[in-house]
Amino acid sequence: MAGTFIRNRLLPRVAVGLSGGVDSSVAALLLLEQGYEVIGVHMQNWDTTDEAGASACPYTEDLRDAEAVSKQLGIPFHRVDFCRPYWTHVFTPFLEEYDKGLTPNPDILCNREIKFDRFQGFARDVVGTPWIATGHYARLRHFPSLGPSLPVGPLPSSTSEGGPRNPRACTGSHSSLPELCTGMDEAKDQSYFLSQVPTRAFQHVLFPLGHLRKGQVRDMAHAAGLCTAEKKESMGICFVGKRRMGAFLPEYLQPRAGTFVSVTTGEVLGTQEGALTLLTVGQGARIGGAEEKWFVCGKDMEAGRIYVAPGTDHPALYCDWLLVAKEDFNWIGQAPWEMGKKHEDRSQPTDRLPSTASPSVAFRCEYRARYRQPLAGCQVSTSSDHPGMLRVDFDVPQRGVALSQTLALYAGERCLGGGAIVEVGPSYYAQGKRLPERRLTWAVSGGKRCVAEARGGEESPRA
């Protein structure tokens, strides 16, 4: 396969993050076909030498496959060790949050701290280019920083500064303001995981797969004879691999036992080792001898209590608002109040958001509080009632919202940014409110997380 690609000298050199999987392999292939000078880079972010059961991590296999793909494509190959910054800036904060009973997302931290920070530095300093590419299913659009609108129609097919030719990947010059958009494959869209990456980090980024579906990517890999064409997807903590959290985390922290308490009666239902640390809101609780399923609806870390509710759709599992810290929220592009003309019709989400100098502002958009959750409507506001906070009010009740999860906001196909949830509103049960027929729920079935809109109201009796 080497030597079959024609180099376009007008296009830049690009460092492609090769994970050893099919997605990054095809990303490199597509860039070669378009005429880029492609350099393969494999990032090692986890060292298994200090880990019991280290054979569970497929790093050696991933490195071998990444190098094999580079040879197939005829491109230079680098391996870079980011184990120390990964431990310091991703894994340690992840452990600290879990130890507090919170629900952090290490994949989001990994993207912000490693792939779109340290990797970019390596590309610039070692590979000799500011441009990087990954196999993420997302898209970037570049528009001048002046101008209020957020167009979502057809995009031009070329750039003015030697950027990518793919109209779905990126348009405009690399000096323009990038906007993050959802991938065309809704089932694989990864914009949620990118929502806390700073705007500046996207200035020289390419997402070659953003306009493709997973099936198309595998077909391309087969057609090119890539050795990763049939490789299964890696699921688990970013760069750590597939892990059973209950067995993996105790190697690095001391999980605390929790006492299960019924939120409806106050009855103590049992205890479980590690549950206070490892369980999160919305998850099922294993209570011995229980005839029905119980789900976590709250935790009291000081008292060591885990409050549980009977049934997957209990009102204690639902809330209708949350808070994120305004200062810590990562706006991709401009913050809504810095752009556009105020949108008066609040009945539908919009791609044109308000501009105002007022300290109190409200606008409508859509949100996602976990990966693969369908986008749902909400209103975002700032006011003196919650100083320094963004309050997000859901159009319909949301199930299983947990502290430290990432909330991502959207306007149409554009991801506006993301931030960690710092406070959750009272549950419908605590308020004595009846759940409406329309509400957003999720559950785990057969090891896979499923999301659906539930129907059927339920009373919220108070004990």
TrEMBL record:
Stretch list, region Disordered: 151-172
Compositional bias per record (Low complexity), positions renumbered to this chain: 151-160
Example of a GO biological process term: methylation
Domain of life: Eukaryota
Segments crossing the lipid bilayer: none
Coiled coil: none
UniProt xrefs under CDD domains: MnmA_TRMU-like
Enzymatic class: transferase
Domain called tRNA-specific 2-thiouridylase MnmA-like central: residue spans: 247-309
Pfam families named in the record: tRNA_Me_trans, tRNA_Me_trans_C, tRNA_Me_trans_M
EC number: 2.8.1.14
UniProt-recorded Gene Ontology molecular function terms: ATP binding; methyltransferase activity; tRNA binding; tRNA-5-taurinomethyluridine 2-sulfurtransferase
Catalytic activity: 5-taurinomethyluridine(34) in tRNA + S-sulfanyl-L-cysteinyl-[protein] + AH2 + ATP = 5-taurinomethyl-2-thiouridine(34) in tRNA + L-cysteinyl-[protein] + A + AMP + diphosphate + H(+)
Described function: Catalyzes the 2-thiolation of uridine at the wobble position (U34) of mitochondrial tRNA(Lys), tRNA(Glu) and tRNA(Gln). Required for the formation of 5-taurinomethyl-2-thiouridine (tm5s2U) of mitochondrial tRNA(Lys), tRNA(Glu), and tRNA(Gln) at the wobble position. ATP is required to activate the C2 atom of the wobble base.
Family named by the database record: Belongs to the MnmA/TRMU family.
Listed name of the protein: tRNA-5-taurinomethyluridine 2-sulfurtransferase
